[in-house]
Amino acid sequence: MNLVVLNNIALTLNNVNVTAPPESVNPDAQSRIALLLNKAQKDIEQTELNIIGNCFLNGSEAGHGISSYEELRITGSGTLNARGGDRTSGTGNGGSGIYTDGYRVAGNDAKLLLDGGVTVNAAGGDSQSEEGGVGIHAAFGVLIIRNATVSATGGKSTGSTGIKRNGGAALQASFNGTTLLQGGSVIIEDSTITARGGNSASGSGGTGIYALSALAINGSSTIDAEGGNSDSGSGGTALYANIGELNIHSGIINATGGNSTSGAGGTALCTNVGELYKCGRAQHPQWNHQCNGRG
Fold first, then answer.
1. How far apart are CA 273 and CA 31, in angstroms?
2. Distances from the Cα of 181 to the Cαs of 41, 75, 106, 175, in angstroms?
3. This prediction's pTM
């Protein structure tokens, strides 16, 4: 079965275990999403998902574990395990563990917030034809992780022929291409994060934490990020900010680029247009860091 919610509510999941049915049972693509939060109207109201106990939400055949078309807060004392479905036939990416789409929300910068001491384990699904799924993806939005424990893994891209496809990112935020200043940031505060990019057979390894805008790490956070490995492309980047700043204020940071069998090794820290700030033990004695690229 799968769960569908059409209104803004505070939804409590208590030791729930849901696996979406396969396409052979229901050909509708939305039925392959374990939990779908899908309103008819656009607004900026937030839906709250309260996690109690151990909860499992598994997409099937490239479906997401959770898919939300509204602003979403995930909180609670329990553990959420969300996995995107694998793409084992046809074309398409693997599903995301958690996916929010702010494009349909007024403002185009809807927040995906993980907080309140919740533990989240999220994995993207694998794909035999295109890219691996993302562990946690705030599409056209902002990803905020505050006082939470998160372990995220990107899905693998296993196809070795045709167009090169990448492994999935573990954590990713993107923005609306027509309003580049809205969305796309990742903000981490007082949290413990493990992020592993997915491996790729022919393209690049997935990124550990990928922000199309800015990436900020604050407070007493512990980050262990690693780019995915690649057989013939380049290894993935551990921490990546595309057009914004990569700003590490404090915390313990371990960042390692992915390996490559025949291509270039991945980068530990990378920003294309913005600046890399607060990177020095002399400036910030409380910031312990280890950053390793791969040759």
1. 40
2. 24, 27, 15, 8
3. 0.90
